[in-house]
Sequence to fold (134 residues):
Amino acid sequence: MLCTNGHSNPDTSEVCSRCGVDTFQAAPAISTSMPAAPPIYVQATNAGKVSGFAIASLVLGIVWIYGITSVLAIIFAVLARKQVANEGRTGGGMAIAGLVLGIIGVVGAILLFIFAAVAVNHIQHMTGFTGFSG
Ligand SMILES: [Zn+2]
Fold:
């Protein structure tokens, strides 16, 4: 803004930094009537959008890969549910599907490894083969 002697000063100035007067020219209307954007707008941009974590959770739950991605699917499902609750995002159903698939995937992987261990043990008993080290 300008002081009554025409010097330019920051808007927060109480006295002119050049001549020291405490009187200022009326600021142009456009600079004073500009409302600050309310912070709710920032939050509203994410509301209603599908949570990326929910999509990632569902995809990883389907991919499986010996239960490795299933663990990530469970983690992403938890993160997605937080986004849905806190930011108003959609995708809660996908997050639940990803969570269920993730749990099934982890349990399936554990069962597979148990089955494989039993099968190997069985083969060793039937054939007497105990591996190259034994
Ligand atoms: Zn001045």
